[in-house]
Amino acid sequence: MRAACAATAGGAHLPLVTAAAVPARPMPPVTAQTLFFAVAALVMLGNYYVYDAIAPVAELLSRQLHFSDTQIGTLNAIYSLPNIFLVAIGGALVDRFTARVMVIATTAVCLLGAAITALGALFPVMALGRLLFGIGAETLSVAVLVALNQWFSAGRFFATQLALNISLARLGSYLADRSTSFAKPLYDAGWEGPMWLAVGFAVLSFVAGVCYFFLDRREARRGTLALPPPGERIQWSQMFNFPRGYWILVGTCVAFYSVIFPFRSTFAIKYLQEAHGMSNDQAGTLNSYVFLAAAFGTPLFGMLLDRTGRNTFLLALGAVLLPLSFLVLAVVPSGAGASTILLGLSFSLLPAVLWPSVPRYAAPEQLGTAYGLMTTLQNAGLFVANYAAGWINDFNGASAANPGGYAPMLWFFGTLSLIAFLCTLALWISGGRRAQPAPA
H-helix or E-strand containing 163? Predict the structure, then answer.
């Protein structure tokens, strides 16, 4: 979650937009594009904050509500559960009913889910809230990706623009982790205050979505957006007609995000508190550096992609840093800082290349489906990894009294990291070559 390039060897890759593919059309005014970019960033910033609001309160949920690590992992796993089935449908619905309609609908569902989570002193209630939030959040991400394609696809620096949107969204994750500092009184009072702070960010996301709806509708009527005509019906067969390179890219996505979010967005702060003796404030601050690095680094790597077109090489470079980060964390006693640096670099580089690479393998009218299917399988990985990591911790008795019990979890994530790297190597070897930047 988050360049239009010419076809490469092995070739069913289609360029997103080229001068030969579509007739010339007017572009939205710069002021309208700037406003759209701002509201799209706020939509995703609020959404990312709510998702990452669990990690900072994980230790409080364990101590005050007596949640097990399996239950804590389930709060993020259940977010992903409906999207194993629904987000591919959501992507097709984006293609059918427009991105702006789906943004309004999904931000409203996310807000409802965040509010129910904040009311959830009982685990089933909190889990229901996270389930509803998940139903809306991933389809929302697909809708925003498609909207960015529609507003900026004719530009030369689409990967940079997409990376900037991702980086601003990462600020939501950064703020969630830093909330242990700037909202410390809320944490001192218990778990409820931080959850209601997350509701406030969900409101911000919804309001920004409303602004986007009216702005997008106005520009669509003016004919300035790259809008493919909607089909008469959803073509479900399209979900299985993508080339081999797309499926290897999906494998990279699934393995990579099955590490990043279950670890850094669910268990990292609790792990740093109990295995490294950090306070909640210290652990949250260190964990936030991963997202802060992504906020600044992702646009730079997006610019690098636009300049070089070396998608597969950059994917492999970003992926190799991930297993190295867990190797350092597992074998170096004071390696938390170095591991954070490696993880931050990987989290900055790989998403900046991964998401702009999808249009290489999908026609414009299939983008919602392509992103939706990838996100569906990504969420299957997130569900399994979140639940498995919590179960592994409980099985091995991981706690402040037994910090060594966290070692199996680290090796579990390290193995998934290695799989992500091997997928990028397969994509590189399978025929990816240097792609040419899109025409201005």
Answer: helix 158-182
- 245: which residues sit within 8 A by CB, 6+ positions away? 10, 13, 360, 361, 427, 430, 431, 432
pLDDT single digits (tens) 394-429:
999 888 889 889 999 999 999 999 999 999 988 888
Q: Which residues contact 397 (CB under 8 A, 6 or more apart)?
A: 405
Cα atoms found within 13 Å of the Cα of residue 293, Cβ hemisphere only = 20
Q: How far apart are CA 139 and CA 83, in angstroms?
A: 8
Q: How far apart are the first and last CA of the chain?
A: 25
**Parts of the chain with a pLDDT under 70:** 1-26, 87-88, 153-159, 223-224, 226-240, 364-365, 368, 431-440
Distance of alpha carbon 204 from alpha carbon 49, whole angstroms: 11
Q: Which of 355, 398, 130 is nearest to 250 (CA)?
A: 355
Rounded distance, CA 252 to CA 422, Å? Answer: 8
Query: Given this model, what pLDDT does residue 436 score?
Result: 37
User: In whole angstroms, how large is the CA radius of gyration of the chain?
Assistant: 21
Instruction: Please state, as a whole number, how many other Cβ atoms lie within 10 Å of the Cβ of residue 247.
Output: 17
**Coil/strand/helix, residue 404:** helix
Give the chain's length.
440
User: Quick one: 337 exposed, middle or buried, by C-beta within 10 A (0-12, 13-18, 19+)?
Assistant: exposed
- Which position has the token pair 């179960």? 391
Contact 140, 47 (CB under 8 A): yes
Q: Is 271 exposed, middle or buried (0-12, 13-18, 19+ CB in 10 A)?
A: buried
Rounded Cα–Cα distance for residues 266 and 109 (Å): 22
Task: Record the tokens describing residue 206, joined without a space.
Answer: 């919804």
Backbone φ and ψ for 122, nearest 5 degrees, come out as -95, 140
As given in the structure block, the two tokens for residue 279 are: 């306070």
Cite the DSSP H helix spans in 358-431. 367-395, 407-429
What is the rounded CA–CA span in Å between residue 420 and residue 237? 27
DSSP 8-state class, residue 131: H
Predicted TM-score (pTM) of the model is: 0.71
CATH of 31-224+243-429, one of 2.40.50.140, 3.20.20.80, 2.40.30.160, 1.20.1250.20: 1.20.1250.20
Shortest CA distance to 434 belongs to which of 329, 350, 336, 309?
309
